[in-house]
Design goal:
31% of the residues are buried. With 121 residues, this protein is of the alpha/beta class. The longest helix has 13 residues. Helix 1 links the parallel strand 1 and strand 2. A 5-stranded parallel sheet has the order 2-1-3-4-5, sandwiched between helices. It is 45% helix and 21% strand. It has 5 helices and 5 strands, in the order βαβαβαβαβα. The chain has one domain: Rossmann fold (3-Layer(aba) Sandwich), CATH 3.40.50.
Length: 121
């Protein structure tokens, strides 16, 4: 069963994503901000996918991706941004940092599950 890390500062959003993905057969792990997400990624080798918000305290999602991919910890770990942001400059920065996708909240369950199935090996 693929393990997916959800990184979002909203407990409600984490719960919605977790319920959606758990019902589709994924195992879900949660982190409350980018710093906790980066530490989780750096300490685990069993993650198949990360779904991450952009705007969070301590470390935002873009900084988290840049830390993970620039540091070489898990350069091939797929990361999908799930955020209310839709600015082209942010999307460009995320893709340059290594994000594999960008989903705007509120998300459709089918869209999230399809992305997870495609990217979580």
């Amino acid at each position: 069963m693929p393990k997916i890390l959800i990184v979002d500062d909203s407990a409600t959003v984490r719960q919605q994503i977790s319920l959606t993905l758990s019902s589709a057969g994924f195992e879900v792990i949660e982190a409350q901000d980018g710093l906790a997400g980066a530490e989780t990624i750096e300490s685990r080798t069993d993650l198949s996918l990360v779904i991450c918000d952009v705007n969070m305290p301590r470390m935002n999602g873009l900084e988290m991706i840049e830390r993970i991919h620039a540091g070489g910890t898990r350069p091939n770990l797929p990361i999908v941004m799930l955020t209310t942001e839709g600015q082209p400059a942010l999307i460009k920065r995320a893709k340059e940092a290594g994000a594999k996708g960008w989903i705007v909240k509120p998300f459709k369950a089918e869209q999230l599950i399809a992305a997870a199935r495609k990217l979580a090996a």
